[in-house]
Amino acid sequence: MALPTEIDPRKLALQGNLLEGTVNIVDLPRLESSVSSICEPLKASIQFELDESRAKVAHGKAVVLVETVCQRCLDGVKVEVEAVFSVQVIWSEDHLNRVAANYEPWLVVDKLANLNELLEDEILLALPLVNYHEEGGCTGDTFQDEVRAIGDEVVSDNPFNVLLQLKK
Fold first, then answer.
1. Of 15, 31, 77, 126, which residue has the fewest beta carbons closer than 10 angstroms?
2. Sign of the C-alpha dihedral, residues 91, 92, 98, 99?
3. Largest Cα–Cα distance of the chain, in whole Å?
4. What is the value of pTM for the model shown?
5. What DSSP character marks residue 122?
6. Dist CA 65 CA 74 (whole Å)
7. In Å, what is the CA distance from 35 to each residue of 15, 76, 78, 124, 153?
8. Helix (H, G, I), strand (E, B) or coil at 89
9. How crowded is residue 162: how many other Cβ atoms within 10 Å of its Cβ?
């Protein structure tokens, strides 16, 4: 089921609603421009509620599979990005000092807020800075030093090992 784009987070928090569903790839333009491709729709689950101080909050998790560039071989690598978040709904920047330490502020000036933007922001923040294939699955692995054990000594396949032997 697709998640709604426009929501009233205050009303959802008062009702204690849980939203679960997906967000289409076309509704994530900033994420799409940050990665090579988005492999499947973003899946999310968001629980809206009032916390112990009666503040309107949302806790959630968003997961998406994207393809980025491996920094070792420059081929595509698929990465599952997961973002877990807790936000507190505020009306204006004047209320920033009222946000509890365990929440991030979610500024909702109008009655309705764009849920896709919140989820996209959280996924963008969770994107790894550098991506690699798994060890042994990358064509760039051929450029890494090969390490082998000789007796008790660990020797790497390095051209300067000859000089080390001469030094001894």
1. 15
2. positive
3. 77
4. 0.77
5. H
6. 18
7. 36, 10, 10, 10, 43
8. strand
9. 9
At 109, the amino acid letter reads V
Higher per-residue pLDDT: 143 or 139: 139
CA atoms of 115 and 9, how far apart (whole Å): 9
The token pair at 28 is: 């994530």
H or E element, residue 117: helix 115-126
Provide the β-strand partners of residue 101. Answer: none
CA–CA separation, 43 vs 117, rounded Å?
Answer: 14
Neighbour count for residue 143 (Cβ, 10 Å): 9
**Percent helix / strand / coil, the chain, rounded to 5:** 25, 40, 35
Mean pLDDT of 136-158: 60
Question: What is the chain's length?
Answer: 168
Question: What gap in Å lies between CA 70 and CA 140, rounded to an integer?
Answer: 9
More confident residue, 152 or 10: 10
Residue with tokens 């690699």: 132
CA dihedral of 114, 69, 157, 150, whole degrees rounded to 10: 50
Residue with tokens 């609603």: 17
